[in-house]
Amino acid sequence: MAVYALTGFSLVSLLSFGYLSWDWMKPSLVADVPTDPMEKSPPPTFSRPPHIIFILTDDQGYHDVGYHGSDIQTPTLDRLAAEGVKLENYYIQPICTPSRSQLITGRYQIHTGLQHSIIRPRQPNCLPLDQVTLPQKLQEAGYSTHMVGKWHLGFYKKECLPTRRGFDTFLGSLTGNVDYYTYDNCDGPGVCGYDLHEGEDVAWDQSGKYSTFLYAQRVSKILASHSPKEPIFIYVAFQAVHTPLQSPKEYIYRYRSMGNVARRKYAAMVTCMDEAVKNITWALKKYGYYDNSVIVFSTDNGGQTFSGGSNWPLRGRKGTYWEGGVRGIGFVHSPLIKRKRRTSWALVHITDWYPTLVSLARGNLSNVPGLDGYNVWPAISEGKESPRTEILHNIDPLYNHAKYGSLEDGFGIWNTAVQASIRVGEWKLLTGDPGYSDWIPPQTLTNFPGSWWNLERLTDGLRKSVWLFNITADPYERYDLSDQRPDVVRTLLMRLVHYNRTAIPVRYPAENPRAHPDFNGGAWGPWASEDDGEEWEGGGEPLKSRNKKKKCKICKLRSFFRKLNTRLMSNRI
Q1: Domains of the chain (ranges plus CATH)?
Q2: Mean pLDDT for the stretch of residues 248-264
Q3: Which residues are CB-contacts of 92 (< 8 A; sequence separation ≥ 6)?
Q4: What is the pTM of this model?
Q5: Which of 51, 152, 197, 242 is flagged as catalytic?
């Protein structure tokens, strides 16, 4: 009991008196009136379009970078951030596909139909083909475009592949997670396949190479073979530090004193990724790109706390709409920044990179109406106010409805059982079930025997469906003000109603047995004919087949796979 009491006191003390070295109370730099995302900003003053390197890490927790006080060594990220602009009011999405789709399209997921969950390997689904992507806009501006790493935006048709969505070259995985060495991915018992692709072909010959190293080496090769006189865009979507927790032994040895095994392996993966970023930066300098380059670093969602990640001192984890799920690590490093070596509190969202980077590239945004992102380069480079005043974190009509939510609790204008979250100015509203709501210090990540840190859930979350926080004054989300400020709750609910009117139907089709890797040479890849129509309709319900004979064939295939899985499981046992 003494241990529990001491640790509990430490948590309360840290939350009460402040844990971080920077000023959480500093107000965000936002305007009072929403700005038109298409409003033109002054063109950049540099002479040539810059080379753009966008680095996205996977499942890296908010606490898991050196300059956030972590016990994990990230000297490269620390140096790049210190010499550039740290984004400390930067938001992403709580899971993989939504963040990536919003980066690539500049649109909220309610405007692409991807507002529920992720795109799974066997779903006939991908980033909507009518969306003009970021790399396509950069190609129009004269850029060479390359992607290295994790796609996770669907692949059931060839039209969905990165090389058909604006990238000149691609080396990486199409699914959500693979083995770091063998590149195998199992989507259920017996449904396993290889997932590493070079362009539109399976890269069998690369098996055995640790993905973090492989991807950094590919970036160096791209830079070596390209001319720095011509603009280039490289999207580096590291698999790290998503599970499985795998790292070369020499990196794990550095953290041998860590008692938590998951944290030890995770830390090794973060440090390994940091060194990969170092090698990429070195290549930019070696081959003559650096002086005219912009490096953007971003995480894709909060850390997964039971897999080694830490979002301390924020509340929640990956997959939740608490700050621990949606506040990201972000910074920009560039010789072209006018006001370097500072921390920015400008409100920035992952959708903002689309118009910001296209504007830097001197591209044309007039033919892509309806963007949800803003050009935030003046806020980043010059310290001006951000044009962004609010963020729709999401509205997910398919997520499990909260037991105690109702239209009545939403003033008759919003059903609070629906999972949704929005930030307007300093205020943040959550409705429905926001997800796992605790604060988890790094040292208690897994196998901790106490339950003292469940206090907030036990006393506050059992019969609620509405939460309101002043995020500027209360970044840890400790003080729910929904009862004290019903006027603010109502105002933010009206904003949710406004956004919901613009939402398109959810794209979340049923899995299709034709996607099984055994039908595709043992690898994950496109399985639908280019002539196949869309196999989904609004609300996530699969379209009923008009062809009874075709429907019968699908039934037989499903029966076949049930028998196949049974045999495979029997052989394993």
Answers
A1: 51-388 (3.40.720.10), 408-441+454-501 (3.30.1120.10)
A2: 94
A3: 99, 298, 299, 300, 301, 326, 327, 328, 330, 349, 350
A4: 0.86
A5: 152
